[in-house]
Amino acid sequence: MSGILLFALAFWLAAWALNVVLARHPSRAVRLVVPVLFGAAVLMLWEGVTRGLGVPPVILPPPSAIWAALISSGPMLWADFVQTFLRAALTGYVLGCGAAFLCAIAIDRSPFLQRGLLPLGNLAAALPIVGLAPIMVMWFGFDWQSKAAVVVAMTFFPMLVNTVEGLRAADRIQHDLMRTYAASWWQTLVKLRLPAAAPFIFNALKICSTLALIGAIVAEFFGTPTVGMGFRISTEVGRLALDTVWAEIAVAALAGSAFYGVVSLIEKAATFWHPSQRG
User: Residue 48: which domain range?
Assistant: First the structure.
């Protein structure tokens, strides 16, 4: 077993040295290779430490055991993914971000709503999820609808604040130019203020993409059918099946990262003109 540990350490050092060399020659290919190589080195070191030092699987299973659980529990993991991500997280994400965007437009249009809705949004954001989730379960039932409601509550305020702030991003001289064209409020909103607010809006969408999945998983700890990532994690922890728990965590991490990446790609295509997207 000590040989596995030594090999893992040697692989880590070799990957570190290679990354240092690659970092001196920045290119698109290098930007893709470096994180992949770093991740492979971390997994190899993890495997070597857990097996070489005889770490009990109950404390930390090796990546090979987690991979075996991924392969053997594919249908179960897919059902959990559909329940938690596609139904609860994605539905709550669309509803929460969409409602927050519309409220931000209304707040920008009406100073009265700005004084009334923003404090309420701040109050909703301060509610702890561990207290909100049981209430949503009682209101909307044990299925994915209650988890989507929790996600709505978690994503609403970040989207609202960023959109309201983004609508104020246009310069005064740009507003004066629109007035010289006799543009209406709606024309100014569509042609000037929303494009100027796009980086803020996409920043909120990226933040909410990770909050949505976290909220859905945590909400499933407080009542759910016998399916879902949160349900599976809590159940398998009780059975000390840590390889399955880590398999669920891996699926959640991959889903959240992919969701974030999709939003980032949409942002890059929609705000190609912005300085943050150049180069």
Answer: 2-55
